[in-house]
Amino acid sequence: MGCVQSFRELCDRPKNTNVRISLPAVCIVWETAMIILFGIFIRYDDDSDSHWIDDRKETNKSDMENEFYFRYPSFQDVHVMIFVGFGFLMTFLKRYSFGAVGFNFLIAAFGLQWALLMQGWFGSLGPDGKIKIGVESLINADFCVASCLIAYGAVLGKVSAVQLMVMTLFGITLFAVEEHIIIHIIHAKDAGGSMVIHTFGAYYGLSISWMLYRPNLNQSSRLQCSVYHSDVFAMIGTLFLWMFWPSFNSAIADHGDGQHRAAINTYLALASTVVTTVAMSSLFQKHGKLDMVHIQNSTLAGGVAVGTAAEFMLMPYGSLIVGFCCGIISTLGYIYLTPFMEKYLKIQDTCGIHNLHAMPGVIGGIVGAITAAAATESVYGVEGLKETFDFVGDMSPTKQGGYQAAALCVAICFGVGGGILVGCILRLPIWGDPADDSCFDDEHYWELPQDEESTQPVLQYNNHMRNKDVIETTFNMQQT
Amino acid sequence: MGCVQSFRELCDRPKNTNVRISLPAVCIVWETAMIILFGIFIRYDDDSDSHWIDDRKETNKSDMENEFYFRYPSFQDVHVMIFVGFGFLMTFLKRYSFGAVGFNFLIAAFGLQWALLMQGWFGSLGPDGKIKIGVESLINADFCVASCLIAYGAVLGKVSAVQLMVMTLFGITLFAVEEHIIIHIIHAKDAGGSMVIHTFGAYYGLSISWMLYRPNLNQSSRLQCSVYHSDVFAMIGTLFLWMFWPSFNSAIADHGDGQHRAAINTYLALASTVVTTVAMSSLFQKHGKLDMVHIQNSTLAGGVAVGTAAEFMLMPYGSLIVGFCCGIISTLGYIYLTPFMEKYLKIQDTCGIHNLHAMPGVIGGIVGAITAAAATESVYGVEGLKETFDFVGDMSPTKQGGYQAAALCVAICFGVGGGILVGCILRLPIWGDPADDSCFDDEHYWELPQDEESTQPVLQYNNHMRNKDVIETTFNMQQT
Amino acid sequence: MGCVQSFRELCDRPKNTNVRISLPAVCIVWETAMIILFGIFIRYDDDSDSHWIDDRKETNKSDMENEFYFRYPSFQDVHVMIFVGFGFLMTFLKRYSFGAVGFNFLIAAFGLQWALLMQGWFGSLGPDGKIKIGVESLINADFCVASCLIAYGAVLGKVSAVQLMVMTLFGITLFAVEEHIIIHIIHAKDAGGSMVIHTFGAYYGLSISWMLYRPNLNQSSRLQCSVYHSDVFAMIGTLFLWMFWPSFNSAIADHGDGQHRAAINTYLALASTVVTTVAMSSLFQKHGKLDMVHIQNSTLAGGVAVGTAAEFMLMPYGSLIVGFCCGIISTLGYIYLTPFMEKYLKIQDTCGIHNLHAMPGVIGGIVGAITAAAATESVYGVEGLKETFDFVGDMSPTKQGGYQAAALCVAICFGVGGGILVGCILRLPIWGDPADDSCFDDEHYWELPQDEESTQPVLQYNNHMRNKDVIETTFNMQQT
């Protein structure tokens, strides 16, 4: 830890948030690189190429058999989760809504291009050296981006757009390697990405946040809170994530019963989570009042935790149990764990992704391992068992369970290791990140409109007359 | 009415809005009960079970024939209507947006679990005592929940979360019985639920509101209005309801032409409603200005009214006529009927569900009865007539029309009767409901952020200097 | 120009924004006309008629072969773009959110009915004199309406609802003729409507705005800006447009690979646009801050520009290049061209549709022409080439390219010519448009709630004490 310490001192210089050169340079250079790499590597796959008609006539297929019709509605739902869901979920801060929804937009749009390349190189590079993309590739690219958006939640308001671009570039690279190991080498199943997406993304973000620890962040504390309308905006994000999570977990599941079952399991787990989140939120607050932070975030934990097992025969009551537990654990995390982590572990987690993605993700990995290990032919059917787990050779449910557990470890290691590495890079004083008293403030990266609200600071005081000095100041100022 | 009167006196005690014990207790107990009951009763249906692959191979079916692909896009649209549509439609109150969208979220998530059980027991209990669920069950559960959310509209801002949970539990139970009678015993058709969902839900809510009449509600009148941005939030709800209503009415219609026709009819009826709503809103206001209340609500009436007949051969112009009438009736309802009902019938209807759901629902039932009675083989085709109405034995269109009318009566009776019963229960002084001067205020059930807006009450006055006293108070306060 | 000048003088009378007679009259008369015309002309098509079951049994088709399942998910996405996308995109003005989302709702709902008729008369009038409608007709009607909503963007805040109704009626009529010429006579391909929808709509709106030029519009300049929350609302519109644009461009493309490819191309072009828009926005602002106007609008330019060529074999890198260029051009348009056009060309373009729809639309037309002209059998396959371009007889790619270019000219001519014509009509002093100092203000057409914000005008001043007079006024007022 010595080198980390000295590195930290090196980086303590005055901050300059002007990204007028660095941001455009990064954007243009990377986008140009994308065009060149796409030109070399990316082509349409069989179902989206105009030669498909020959294929269709030969095999006497119906138009409907095109992969597009199996996956496109789910893809669109996932797309909404990525851009509106994650974007608006983070708008809860009173003066960082532009940054939340705008930077989310930028890194998602950039990230998905890089994801198509990385996932292609690792997953579907053909013998001709070309990557063939179709609707499933688009879904996978969105999934890949999701892990970086989760990580963004931990550092929300504390980094610049350039840092986010760097974080996304490395995050997607790491993701593609991690996913390749988990899916293609270990042969673990993870349709909803509890491990691959959520566990990895959350630990990646938390490690970065730990590396970027700001001891004097309380100087921005007046901005690290919500206002009434920003909480309502955040509910737009929450609800679109919540509603479309069944599509997220079923989007790349097996055709037919696989997708069908994944959607049902997720629907049930999420419903159960909402009820227990409300219970915990009310029980642990004075006067039993509900806290919007819990309603906005913990209600989603069930969807995360049911991700891996969603396409297994988890059974409806199993989904409810998973959701039940996650609602409780996630809410308690917000109440007890987040303050603890900030105080003792020096991890500042703006959106509480540890409670929403990390813990439920790990639970999801464990649930997946247990469900896989407990699979029997009597429950799945002989064919069904093979189909669900893609068993080849002498694989057995018990082995599969072990592999699932191994996959979970891989996801955690990649997240923590990658996060520390990238955190080091992001500490370099060249990325235009804000000073401690400028965090959570759109002012530094956005042209802001002249609001009524923002232009009345001296006249603001609360009902209980705590700020009496302010009023007197106002009055005196008016008299002179 | 004597007993009601004495019961009312019994209930007039000071209010305590602290639900710290009751809300968590209810949530945990009920969710635990759900898990046990799901464990005993609920299993995957044939299309979502992993044995489906055997079935598919036997019958040489395509993957595409899985029910999932017929209904899932519609399901997701309905899901958005339930959570974003109903939730945001009710955010129009200036200080009850958290309660609107948050409690809507809670009761919908709880209700859909109970609905799966109730509808299963009545509708699809197999010989092995198990309820098999698939994507159609999820849609039906969402439909069932919709009726309770409609009822919530009548009592919005005047009840506690615990009361809403009780109201939902009974509402869904009543719904399942009513639906069973209408669909399985009377054999009426009601794909879009004009009768089953809207008429029942609206009268259920109105009866409860009548039982919970608050003579001194005007004490909260300063909060029973909107602000500029809360009206824009409400438009999010309106538009998602409006746009996805074709999916609502077609979600469980017959495969193929049934779903297709239901979507077209609903699309047209809604378009027509918007135009006449604007006409009426402008015509009945001073200076021809439009009223957001009408635009937010009455524009949806056509979708309600076309629900029953949507899958019939209503013809495109028929849909336009239904929408035309409903836009007029619903808007006039907001202008004349809602004040009348509050003043003379003692029914306080916060969202005006009588105008948006009750009247259009009844119209929908009547339109359905007439359209069914007028059905002929020349219009429908011999096979088409049987297919559309599921005729068995000696059924004829005329008989079907009569049955449709009977179904409408059942829906109204269940709504009114059930509402009075549940209203009695909700009058018990144990549910933590707010006092008359605390209605429409999130303050009592939510941890609120410290807003600029909410902390400036003494400085507020309007352009026309009506509140001159307030200003003088402010000034004096500042001088001392 | 002499007659235009004198006509302008004729129209310079005091303004009356009361539309209490005209708006209801127009709505009721036109809606009644719709019902009569629908009664005479519109019927269900084969796939939505109850006779479909006979057809299905004869040809041994699956239920899934119904056109509904090919197009309905895309239709719903397009529907969301029309009502939420366009509606909320225009809510950015601080005091015109009701007008933006409300009038958008009205003219879209009216317009789609008229579009079904117009497009039917020109495109699908059967030998029995009936127009058969199905899900594809609904998509086309939504497309048709889109062109009028684009035009609305140019005149946002400066016209009355009655003017918008007139503008929509003529706009849709012109659209149907233009579309008929381009698609059915010239046989150009334009699945995503770069030319047919965007180019036409934008020039139609710009020409109207030119005809309605207001030299003293700066009197409303205090309202022609955004506030913090209105910019967040606008991002809802931006994101739903952005996310669902792949559905827009693929909605009426060929079944199978056509729809599939159109979605992929659009997805990629849009992703690329976001990155270059951010680069330009940062590069051309002081301190490198991003401008919300660019993020809200220019990020969509790639979707417009890839519309025509989306279903061709544009190749993934081709899509990225198109998006790359459009992000740059559109953002520069906002920075340099919009002020230039207002100052020198007397075109006041509220939403900057010239940068979002006109220029990218023209680029889209050109890209389409080049891509078509460069098509070869080696890239498309023999069957694929015929299928993609619907070649009949002696058509060749080169010819097709020429036809595509001709189509672009037709779109521009119809837009400019039609706009000037309709602009003349809209200058008549009978439509209730607002005075120059009343533009961008919901006050004149909507019953507004009593906001805290809106009722504190005299107390507002900014941090830098620029408005010191206002404060003194306030103080003096309080003392007296």
From TrEMBL, chains A, B, C:
Pfam families: Ammonium_transp
Superkingdom of the source species: Eukaryota
Bilayer topology: Multi-pass membrane protein
Keyword line: Ammonia transport, Cell membrane, Glycoprotein, Membrane, Transmembrane, Transmembrane helix, Transport
Entry-linked Gene3D superfamilies: Ammonium transporter AmtB like domains
Subcellular location: Cell membrane
An example Gene Ontology molecular-function term: ammonium channel activity
InterPro entries: Ammonium/urea_transptr (IPR029020), NH4_transpt_AmtB-like_dom (IPR024041), RhesusRHD (IPR002229)
Domain Ammonium transporter AmtB-like residue range list: 60-441
Gene Ontology cellular component terms for the protein in this record: plasma membrane
BP terms from Gene Ontology: ammonium homeostasis
Transmembrane regions: 21-42, 74-93, 100-117, 137-157, 164-186, 192-213, 225-244, 264-283, 295-314, 320-337, 358-382, 402-426
Annotated function: Functions as an ammonia transporter. May play a role in the elimination of ammonia in the gill.
Family the UniProt entry places it in: Belongs to the ammonium transporter (TC 2.A.49) family. Rh subfamily.
Name this protein carries in UniProt: Ammonium transporter Rh type C-like 2
Source species of the chain: Gymnodraco acuticeps (Antarctic dragonfish)
Lineage: Eukaryota, Metazoa, Chordata, Craniata, Vertebrata
Name of the gene: rhcgb
